[in-house]
Amino acid sequence: MALAIGDAHTPLTKMVKDALRERILNAEFEPGTRLVEGRISEEMGVSRMPVREALRELAAEGLVKIIPRRGATVSMPAADQKMDLIEVRATLEALNARLAARRKDPERIEELQRVLAAGESDIEKSDFSEMRAHNDAFHTALGEVSGNVTLQDLIRTLRDQTAMLFKQDDPVKVRETWREHADILRAVIAGDEELAAILASRHVYNAVEPEQATD
Amino acid sequence: MALAIGDAHTPLTKMVKDALRERILNAEFEPGTRLVEGRISEEMGVSRMPVREALRELAAEGLVKIIPRRGATVSMPAADQKMDLIEVRATLEALNARLAARRKDPERIEELQRVLAAGESDIEKSDFSEMRAHNDAFHTALGEVSGNVTLQDLIRTLRDQTAMLFKQDDPVKVRETWREHADILRAVIAGDEELAAILASRHVYNAVEPEQATD
DNA sequence: CCTATTTTTTTGGTATACCAAATATGACGA
DNA sequence: TCGTCATATTTGGTATACCAAAAAAATAGG
Fold first, then answer.
1. Cα–Cα distance for residue pair B84/A191, rounded to 1 Å
2. pLDDT tens for residues A178-209?
């Protein structure tokens, strides 16, 4: 009993969450499986509270579905929701780019250029983990150029929700990705709202839709 | 001690939340005021748990800001965030209408027409509370026509966040609102994505910006 | 074999109580 | 007066324990 990974001092909620997430992603728990609080808490040797919390958070991430009075079940993310997510995210990223092109705050733009350069140098070094960080940084910075905090929050949430569904770091694709970043930034600097919006939207579809669509 | 409104059997969390919300909206608590869990729970005669929960929910609504290890403070929504919210909501409502016009599920459309008729009859009867319910129903139904659940969720959240900031039921405006609903529905039925999107977007600006909105 | 009823599980919601870590506050000495 | 250290508060996180309402499972009846 008790969690296999007994890192004292990391919140139990997080441990429970990670454990569940892994099992879900490993298909150890198939979609539709009921996740009974009591059972999990017993199995992991924690009280129900951190389990509840973990389930809630997983629900926010989209891995679990909670129906009132029915409890939590493993939800099959991908498939049906996948296109929905992409559609929404593309739309918001487009709005974001449009606003960025409209406001184009000089300082933030500089920051963007810095991140862009960093990302491009990561490609040379094939440093994927740095690249991922810079990718996030680029999108974050772009969000800051637009200046719309609400929008940023939503996009971040959507990014979290799609993150694990479509993650992959194909060397070819990565190069493509940063080329697109450069294009978007160029459009933003030029103040071409329409172009920036279109490029940003397309960027989402490209990054997220590998080759073989599961749907 | 204890909540003034002692409705047994309504969750304490909700009572706490409502009480806090009211005081915040009444400016009894000014923006920036610290909301100390212990103090509130004592004052209202409940334990800290429902207070925490209430604060979290209020944070989700945007009335309160929670900074890690710093606790909750009253945030001043409106002003700066207002346009952000509207911008995002308008964009998403536009996407929603666009998708609705694309898929136009016959059954849902019927539902929409029913709600539209109900809303229009509310106008005759000047039944504002019914009207508000039908207004929600209309938007919900429109969301269902589009078929994008993710989108629906986001829009609902945004609607919640804007609800109390811009609420008003002016008899004249109300008539306008339902005329716009009719226009949107017409565009959806006609399958005119572009028009539906534009009308839906404008609808948000109109409903939310008392004077007028020509963006 | 299917349905109605009873029993057992679960979920939600809450109280109470600790504790460690982080923050706020106040007193103190430079 | 100012920076620093000690002390008091708070927040987060968790355990444990109840309870009512709702759902699921088991059982009785037709």
1. 20
2. 999 999 999 999 999 999 999 999 999 988 75
- Mean pLDDT over residues B155-174, rounded? 77
B176 and B206 Cβ atoms separated by less than 8 Å? yes
Distance B37 CA to D8 C1' (A): 16
Measured distance CA(A112)–CA(A106) in Å, rounded:
10
Largest CA distance in chain B: 59
Q: Report whether pLDDT(A212) > 50.
A: no
- Is the predicted pLDDT of residue B7 greater than 80, yes or no? no
Distance from CA(A165) to C1'(D12), angstroms, rounded? 31
D15 C1' – A67 CA distance, angstroms? 26
Domains and CATH numbers, chain B: 12-74 (1.10.10.10), 78-208 (1.20.120.530)
Q: ∠ CA(A13), CA(A17), CA(A23), 5° rounding?
A: 150
Which nt is closest to the CA of A36, judged by C1'?
A: C10
Whole-angstrom distance, CA of residue A78 vs CA of residue A161: 10
Q: Which of B148, B88, B208 is nearest to A154 (CA)?
A: B88
**Distance from C-alpha of B97 to C-alpha of B104, rounded to nearest angstrom:** 10
- List pLDDT tens digits, range A116-125: 999 999 988 8
Q: How many CB pairs under 8 A join A and B?
A: 45
- Cross-chain residue pair B84–A151, CB shorter than 8 Å: yes
Q: What is the DSSP letter of B32?
A: T
For chain A residues 46-85, those near strand C by a CB cutoff of 7 A are 49, 52, 66-72
Buried/exposed B118-128: b ≥16 CB within 10 Å, e otherwise: ebbebbeeeee
The answer to whether the beta carbon of residue B49 comes closer than 7 angstroms to any atom of strand C is yes
The mean pLDDT value of chain B amounts to: 86
Average of per-residue pLDDT across B83-89: 91
Residue B188 or residue A26, greater confidence: B188
Mean pLDDT of A149-174: 80
User: Does ipTM top 0.85?
Assistant: no
CB distance A148–B88 less than 8 Å?
yes
Distances (CA, A) of B76 to A123, B29, B35, B61: 43, 10, 14, 12
Residue A44, number of CB atoms within 10 A of its CB = 20
B88/A95 touch (CB, cutoff 8 Å), yes or no? yes
Q: Answer yes or no: do A150 and B95 touch at CB < 8 A.
A: no
Tell me which chain A residues have a C-beta less than 8 angstroms from the C-beta of B148. Answer: 84, 87-88
Shortest CA–C1' contact from B14: which nucleotide?
C13
